[in-house]
Design goal:
Elements: H1 8-12, H2 27-37, E1 41-46, E2 49-55, H3 56-64, H4 92-102, E3 106-111, E4 114-120, H5 121-144
Antiparallel strand pairs: 1-2, 3-4
Amino acid sequence: MKNTIPVSSLLHDKSPVVWSVSPATTVFEAIKLMAAKNIGAVPVLSGGILVGIFTERDYTRKVALCGKNSKETHVWEIISNQVISVTPDVSIAECMRLMTEHRVRHLPVLNRTQLMGIISIGDLVNWTISSQEATIAQMEQYISGSLAEPVELAAT
């Protein structure tokens, strides 16, 4: 199975709404937003520019375990300023490689400086499963003779 499909194809299947916080947002407010929206990370934007990403992992390791108060700590105090991101044309395979290599679970997708969306490891797993199921179905049709010849499938 080829994974040359661009990550932008995954964004088409996701909600266009990207929840974000500012650097001055308290950790408590960021966690509250993440819980309400059932998401594991939020981009941190300053003036519309991505300056970081705040994750559940950041909270547990940099706030809870360090004894900091989430209502007094701001996200700018604990986020990493080195954000691993991709452009919309990067392949799904490359996204998987980057997530594995950098041990991150969320990749912001940027078109220049504009945040297009966020791809999670769950998004990539779901795409992989859907792609494999489509390939298997197509091969079964080919073997049974109901499909003339196999064609390369895009993610559904």
